[in-house]
Amino acid sequence: MTRFGAVEISAGLSHSYKPVMNGIRSCENGTLRNGMIAEEKVHNGGLYKRSFNEAFEETPMIVAVLTYMGYGILTLFGYLRDFLRTWKIEKCHIATERDEQKDFVPLYQDFENFYTRNLYMRIRDNWNRPVCSVPGERIDLMERFTDDYNWTFKFTGRVIKGVINMGSYNYLGFAQNTGLCADASAKALSQYGVGMCSTRQEIGNMDKHEELEQLVAKFLGVEAAMTYGMGFATNSMNIPALVGKGCLILSDELNHSSLVLGARLSGATIRIFKHNKMQSLEKLLRDAIVQGQPRTHRPWKKILIVVEGIYSMEGSIVRLPDVIALKKKYKAYLYLDEAHSIGALGPNGRGVVDYFGLDPRDVDIMMGTFTKSFGSAGGYIGGSKVLIDYLRAHSHSSAYATSMSPPVAQQIISSMKCIMGEDGSTVGRKHVEQLAENTKYFRHRLTEMGFIIYGNSDSPVVPLMLYMPAKIGAFGREMLKRNIGVVVVGFPATPIIESRARFCVSAAHTKEMLDAALREINEVGDLLQLKYSRHLFVPLLDRPFDETTYEETED
Fold first, then answer.
1. Boundaries of each Aminotransferase class I/classII large domain copy (predicted)?
2. Which residues are CB-neighbours of 147 under 8 A, at least 6 positions away?
3. Nearest to 406 by CA among 215, 189, 234
């Protein structure tokens, strides 16, 4: 039930919170805050130059028990319904084995297929809702209904207008069909057309691609950059080009599926460390150095640490100063996925490196996507010129994928220049500042209402815990009734008992929109009894920071 705790790091100090026990309030080398002991310890020589506040509140015991019971009951009814389908008493609409293949290894019959048939289908109406407008701060949805329990949907012909969009990754509000970015993309469309019909290595390399890559390198503060037409493939196709057999990948347990797929395709050995736990990562690094490869005990060819900037289901931010310190100490490489953090974090909107005030050269491979903060599509990798030249020759995404569409590239160029201020305005900086302000306000209000909210106080990804399976569908439906569009998430995207609603805050949201959404969330929270928070936290770390120093060692 308890996965993480809460931590606040401020200007080189670490505060691990402990709940007050038996009504006794004591302070041990610390101060008392909100009924919790804040123990202060010097943190690794002051790696953190800013406050770092994350909270993962303990799941109440009764909620965890009821959640397990709910899934247990649904599973029992699922087996009953499968029995009825076997005897043709109930019709089954999902893919099943053909009669002539009954003796073969089942192609479809696994737990996830069982889950889809018997649990997901009950609440399927909460996903894949057709949007018929620009995915901005407000959206229009095509109304639909089902007469066969969510197996199929039919449209009513009506449109639900002006739904407040609390689910899209439109962090900086560049998802628009009017304005400078949209006009520039329309001009590029008329000049270049839609597609290139070739790869970058053949006849699909354009001046827009070259301009974009130079701009991305400048934006990130690195020597060179390379762009790709698909964000998912940027991870899944480039990691295999960087590591292979005889290499070791140390991956955070909550990394995105594109990182997981890329690691598996590489053929490298994969070891998992606990989410954002530096002690777990350091133990794996030590073991890797001391023991080497299995059986032969030869040294690993490469050790690659793979982390994300913002974790899209937890709302947490990577402890990048610690990761860089460990990477330097143990001479490993660092792969940083900034899909959700680029544009959304840092005083200049340049991601988690900018957020912590670190040197971009300390990150070996900087990856990110254009699908979120830039309102476009595709991904990039930035780093040294040697790295980028190598990927141009060896990356599958470079050699075999069609070039990025010119209007898409122009949208990225226009929005990135706006963020950098190269368009001659302060619009981009105002968007970055507005996003930070909206994020703090939205998170603070939800916490005040009594919801359990995961993640970092500066993260625009805001998970609100629902837990019970019946409340996944109920929350999504009730919010849509109130003209609020939200994303609800359950297994397999999250652990099976940690279902949640995931809000994505945008700079395009006005205070009036956020207040309207908060008012409806508060009402639905009371209706569905979702206010589980008791504001009790457990310690985040297993041991004090000062047991290990992360200073860089000499060769």
1. 162-521
2. 154
3. 189
19, β-bridge pairs: 36
180-420 CATH: 3.40.640.10
The single residue listed with the structure tokens 């040197």 is 359
Task: Choose among 372, 248, 260, 226: nearest CA to 310.
Answer: 372
Tokens of 340: 């959700």
What is the spatial distance between Cα 540 and Cα 555, in angstroms, rounded to a whole number?
Answer: 33
Partners of 262 in beta bridges: none
**pLDDT of 372 strictly over 90:** yes
CB 174 within 8 A of CB 181: yes
Average pLDDT over residues 76-81: 94
* Domain spanning 124-165+427-528: CATH 3.90.180.10: no
Q: Peptide bond before 469: cis, by omega within 30 degrees of 0?
A: no
309/318 Cα distance (integer angstroms): 5
Question: b vs e for 238-266, b when ≥16 Cβ sit within 10 Å of the residue's Cβ?
Answer: bbbbbbeeebbbbbbebbbebbbbbbeeb
- What does the pLDDT read at residue 109? 66
**C-alpha triplet 159, 163, 168: angle, nearest 5°:** 115
What's the CA gap between 46 and 43, in Å, rounded?
6
Residue range(s) occupied by CATH 3.40.640.10 in the chain:
180-420
Distance from the Cα of residue 178 to its chain's centroid:
28
Q: What is the pLDDT of residue 54?
A: 87
Question: When comparing pLDDT for 360 and 19, which is higher?
Answer: 360
Give the burial class of 88: count Cβ atoms within 10 A of its Cβ; 0-12 exposed, 13-18 middle, 19 or more buried.
exposed
In angstroms, the CA 299 to CA 84 distance is 57
Rounded CA separation 490/122 (Å)? 13
What sign does the CA torsion over 519, 520, 523, 528 have?
A: negative
Q: 434-471 burial string, b = 16+ CB within 10 Å, else e?
A: bbbebbebbbebbbebebbbbbbbbbbbbbbbbbbbbb
**Given this model, what pLDDT does residue 483 score?**
97
Nearest to residue 52, comparing CAs of 513, 456, 483?
456
d(CA 488, CA 476): 6
| Comma-separated ranges of CATH 3.90.1150.10 domains in the chain | 124-165+427-528
Give the per-residue pLDDT at 59. 87
